[in-house]
Amino acid sequence: MSQPGGHRFRHNLDATAIRVRGAAARRPYERGHRQMAQYELRMPKLGESVTEGTIGRWLVRPGDTVLKYDLLVEVQTDKVNTEIPSPVSGTLREVRVEEGVTVPVGALLALVDTVADVTAGAAPTSAPVAEAAARPASASVPAGAPANAAVARPAVAPGDPPSSAETLHAADRADVRATPAVRKLASDSGVDLRTLTGTGLGGRVSRQDVEAHLAVRDTVPAAAPVPAPVVTVSPTATPPLIAKPTGPAPLAGDELLRLTPMRRAIAENMVRSWSAPHAHAVMEIDMTAVMRYRETVRGEFIAREGFDLSPAAFIMKAAVEALRAVPRVNASWTTEGIRVHRTINLGYAVSLGDDGLVVPVIGSADGLSIAGLMRAIRDVVDRAKLRKLSFEDFSSGTFTVNNTGPLGTVISSPIVPPGQAAIVSAEAILKRLVVTGDDQIGIRQMMNLVIGFDHRVVDGATAAKFLATMRVWLEGVTAAVPVY
Asked: Do 129 and 168 lie in a common domain?
């Protein structure tokens, strides 16, 4: 297990990540002087345990005009994918870190030029005017005119209808995710961004999407409807590794898969986890009572909640009850001693296929009913697959449940996540012929429950007691057990 994530959310950039330099920051403004200011966009601190980030994709190009709060760059960490907004209006002058490069917190990412007309002793310029002044002169000066020539935009009366380009731009801004440069290209070309399928991160419409649409449109008669093409954008190649690759010599036809931030974090967490002395124990659980009870309440639950009631919710509830009875398992190893946690925060492992896996945390799980646990499981699984988990979703886990049953495994050996003392893995529920307590042979639905534990904190007897407590609860499920 590990606790990385590869999940995207919009980051509110810390003001300390932006610094002003140049003449505008060192001397007073002169009367009527047009000042140039240069902002340094630096890698912000994206979480308490995050010390670096990888540039995923630049959303604007050098020379593009950006407005305050427009998204500039995607940054990938071991937990989430973050979009960094511009704190100022201006022009992206220079990109200092290329895509695919990993840099530490505080590293200079890019330079943004801003322009402002300042008159000594005058009142501050209003926000709309200030943003207009921040745009480069080339955006409003005809070709051949002096660089500092000012061209006034025609005034628009309140009652005048907006131009078609302005209407299109305003209509798609709220509905479609795209950068200012892409919006301008679409507006100039008469393309409605809402008709395109975005291939960028999180469904963002990219420049390639617009250009591909234009290429198709220009080759088809205007009267024929043109469906929006779906374009697969090749990922930017990662720069070659500086260190000499280690491992066996490559064979003919081998493919090298560059490490993503998530895969690298998984590797580091697994190495750190495995440094603890691991041990495992397995116990058979008769899940027949759980599965029968689930069938009796399943229909009503689906009608009420809109999704299915998984056996995982019962397994999580059994883990909560066992942690209450055997609190030593809900603990952490420290150099000062064993810290026993009074709060039960359950991590729930979610597979993302070849991308890796994440372990979001369901906080205060001991206060949730079976239905509440099922809602929480559904929530973290859905958001994990949509890459919408945040840093808070990975914090403060005290114990982890790994539901490998849907994968078909019958016995596994889970690795304890860093900072925890144990993890339990629920294997596949299979129908088997079993000799029952009254010496009868019957068909029962059986499941193996595996616990992996840090032997510095948990001994074999304690691990067995924990599994036995889970078994007693699961095998004793009846109609008297409330779902809500």
From this structure: no
CATH number of the structural domain spanning residue 388: 3.30.559.10
Q: What are the tens digits of pLDDT across the range 364-400?
A: 999 999 999 999 999 999 999 988 888 889 889 999 9
- Give yes or no: residues 205 and 61 share one domain: no
Residues 216 and 280 in one domain: no
Residue-level pLDDT at 23: 44
Residues of the domain holding 197: 164-231
Residue 113: which of 153, 60, 173, 76 has the closest Cα? 60
Are 196 and 52 in the same domain? Answer: no
Whether 237 is covered by a domain: the verdict is: no
Question: Which residues contact residue 137 at a Cβ distance below 8 angstroms, ignoring those fewer than 6 apart?
Answer: 115, 147, 148, 149, 150
Please indicate, yes or no, whether residues 451 and 334 belong to a single structural domain of this protein: yes
Element (H, E) at 55: strand 52-58
Q: How far apart are CA 176 and CA 187, in angstroms?
A: 13
Q: With both helix axes pointing from N to C terminus, report the angle between 207-218 and 180-189 in degrees, rounded to the nearest 10.
A: 10
Residue at 293 is within a domain: yes
CA distance 225 to 217: 9
Residues noted as catalytic: 455, 459
Q: How many CA atoms lie within 13 A of 210 on its CB side?
A: 23
- Looking at the domain assignment, is residue 248 inside a domain? no
Residues 146-164 pLDDT 10s = 444 443 444 444 444 444 4
DSSP sequence for 449-478: EEEEEETTT--HHHHHHHHHHHHHHHHT--
More confident residue, 126 or 193: 193
Q: How far is CA 69 from the centre of its chain?
A: 20
Structural domains of the chain, count:
3
Task: Please indicate whether residue 52 or residue 59 has the higher confidence score (pLDDT).
Answer: 59
Q: Based on the domain organization, do 288 and 420 belong to the same domain?
A: yes
Residue 171 has pLDDT above 50, yes or no: no
Identify the DSSP state of 289.
H
Q: Is the pLDDT assigned to residue 48 strictly greater than 80?
A: no
Tell me the CB-side half-sphere exposure of residue 115, using CA atoms within 13 A: 19
Distance, first Cα to last Cα, the chain: 30
Check if the beta carbon of residue 418 is closer than 8 Å to that of residue 268: no
